[in-house]
Amino acid sequence: MNPPQSNAPTRRLDQVLADAARHFGDRVALAAESESLTYRQLDERVTALALELTRHGVGPGSRVGVHAPRGITAVVTLYAVLRAGAVAAPLDPADPPARLARTVRGSGLHFLATMTPARVAEAVGLPGSTAPGVDLGGPALLRVASDPAGDLALDGGYIFSTSGSTGTPKGVLLSHENVLHFAEWAARTLGLRPDDRVGAQAALTFDLSTFDLYSSALAGAAVHLMPERLSAFPAEVAGWLREHEISVLYAVPTLYRLLRRTGLLTGRTAPRLRRFVFAGEPLPPDLLAWYLAEFPGASCHNLYGPTETNVCTAEHFPPGTTVGATVPIGRAIDGTHAVVLDPDGRPARRGELHVAGPTILRGYLVDGELRDPTREVRFDDGATRRAYPTGDLAETDDEGRLLLLGRADDQVKRRGHRIDLRDVESALREAVTAEACAVVAKRGRHEGEIWAYVVGAASERQVLTALAGVLPRRMLPDRIVLTDRLPVSGHGKVDRRELAELASTEGA
């Protein structure tokens, strides 16, 4: 099935910035370290860079990787790529060269805008000098593949890279409309205001960042980019939130738990915090209850949605809410439809969650080609819609809210990142000479960790060092276990369930 085409006028993410420059021109749009830009200044920089990109061949149909650390330059470049009519693909500068090369090939990128052109050119196998590419007055532009006119010119948008079972990252193609529908809903539902200060701590490669940039621009709020160096130090993050008087924070529950543990972020020390938005991982009830009690005037929102759907369901917890034993992911957001289906594809109380509506991806980019993972699904209202099967198991409670039950496949969430365990296994087989290996998500007292079991490797350090050369840090196993054998099931396959149980009882 091919993604549907539309003749309707396309709303654009870069137009959100242009509108903000007209309505909120003198207000701070973006702040990072000691630099800040008003909406008018940000729009002027974006326009100038977009003209340079266009002059050097970037345009509708181009897919442009933005390879820069989170900061003003990266944000300006993302906006400029969109304004040039191209598709923007945020890339993580910390990824190993081998992973970067696979991401570039998998998504079929035509250009790379990067702060380190020589290193990136070498990583993706480009011939050239030690300083290749066109200097754009900040990033340099590298052409990495031919760019046929009009190729994949759906309506621009984003490509987010996500873990895949084959060992090659998949590119999730989102249109302008996919992102804008969520951004407008979030700005409206959370009641963002021009005087808000949004704490942007999510990587630009993470779809949470679309809220930081576009919902904020819709409201004329100021985006404060948290320095990446603070990420590993929760006490420093708490201090940064207080110092910059952040009023809205959108983050994964892992960060919220770490902030709570510091004891430095409280309703007394950070009185301006009025909106806490959780997403990316299941939200523990005790964590939600603590924030509601500690910040009695604040609202909390639990948002749900894989990258392929952006945010598609939500639950609001206003001040004074009593938290139950589980935290629901709520109901479908405005204009979006969610249904739980049993293994036979019929609506059921428990089963796999399917989502349809304007936030659903255009498709996956695999080896540069667009593939549609959606299917035709009949919803409770009798309508048949193009729906994405999330792989998440869910249940509908008595009030019609959705509760998450786990995964139907080998994917896990860690610190908000979705990781396919077979992706880690594939990298392990490629990087290490070993007789056999298996990667499992832990249960019991080591819940949330990933362990790799390896037969025939020389040492744990050797395995971890080899993996660090091909996998991003977020995907590295928490522990390498050298073993003489892997348990097998009655069908002769590796018994991963048994390994997961062993992982919870072995001393470590």
How are the secondary structure elements laid out?
Blueprint (H helix, E strand, L loop, with lengths): L12 H11 L4 E5 L2 E4 H17 L7 E5 L4 H12 L3 E5 L5 H11 L3 E4 L2 H7 L10 E2 L4 E4 L13 E6 L7 E5 L1 H14 L7 E4 L8 H11 L2 E4 L8 H10 L4 E4 L1 H10 L12 E4 L6 H10 L4 E6 L8 E5 L13 E2 L4 E5 L8 E7 L6 E4 L2 E3 L3 E4 L5 E13 L5 E6 L3 E4 L2 E4 H11 L4 E6 L8 E6 L4 H9 L10 E5 L12 H10 L3
Parallel strand pairs: 1-11, 3-4, 3-5, 4-8, 10-11, 10-12, 12-13, 13-14, 27-28
Antiparallel strand pairs: 1-2, 5-7, 6-7, 8-9, 9-19, 14-15, 15-16, 17-18, 18-22, 19-20, 21-22, 22-23, 24-25, 26-27
What does this protein look like?
The termini are far apart. The protein contains 13 helices and 28 strands. Strand 17 and strand 18 form a beta hairpin. With 508 residues, the chain is of the alpha/beta class. The relative contact order is 0.09. The N terminus is likely disordered. It has a 9-stranded mixed β-sheet with strand order 2-1-11-10-12-13-14-15-16, with helices on both faces. Strands 6-7-5-3-4-8-9-19-20 form a 9-stranded mixed β-sheet, with helices on both faces.
